[in-house]
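[step 3/7] inverse_fold.run input=structure_tokens len=150
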């Protein structure tokens, strides 16, 4: 991934560590012992279909610092970028908890609402703005990317 530190709301405003979170029922959990790289809103069609809403909200973290507990069910698809996306759901409550990207294997991407402290979601970027619907346009004040971060 390109250097995102200039775009990240965490660079000068770190969160307490470790970052913890999980699904709705508590069976699938994670812990991350490093600062997030960036938080974003994604308007791609897959985020819309998976969430049932207009966009997905994610925190991108360093994968080497992440550990998970509990079983996860995987859904895999080839994204518009040509890379493969892996989404991980709790088999019990079906919440989507985290994701991985073949193009960015160094990252561990968590769903914003899965955070135990949901105020630690500090989005600064919108991706796949081209796929946003008229009823859920990109939030004002965020840096817009037409496609993914590449
Ligand atoms: Zn669950
Ligand atoms: Zn998306």
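[step 3/7] decode complete -> sequence:
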């Amino acid at each position: 991934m390109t250097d995102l530190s200039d775009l990240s709301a965490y660079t000068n405003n770190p969160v307490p560590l470790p970052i913890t979170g999980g699904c709705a029922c508590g069976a699938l959990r994670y812990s991350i012992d490093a600062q997030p790289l960036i938080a974003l809103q994604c308007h791609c069609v897959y985020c819309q279909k998976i969430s049932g809403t207009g966009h997905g909200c994610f925190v991108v973290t360093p994968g080497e610092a992440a550990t998970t507990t509990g079983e996860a069910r995987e859904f895999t698809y080839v994204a518009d970028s040509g890379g493969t996306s892996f989404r991980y759901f709790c088999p019990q409550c079906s919440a989507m908890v985290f994701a991985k990207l073949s193009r960015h294997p160094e990252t561990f991407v968590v769903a914003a609402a899965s955070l135990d402290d949901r105020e630690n979601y500090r989005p600064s970027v919108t991706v796949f703005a081209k796929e946003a619907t008229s009823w859920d346009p990109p939030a004002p004040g965020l840096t817009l990317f037409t496609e993914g971060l590449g």
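[step 4/7] annotate
The chain is about 5% helix and 35% strand.
The chain has a mean pLDDT of 95.
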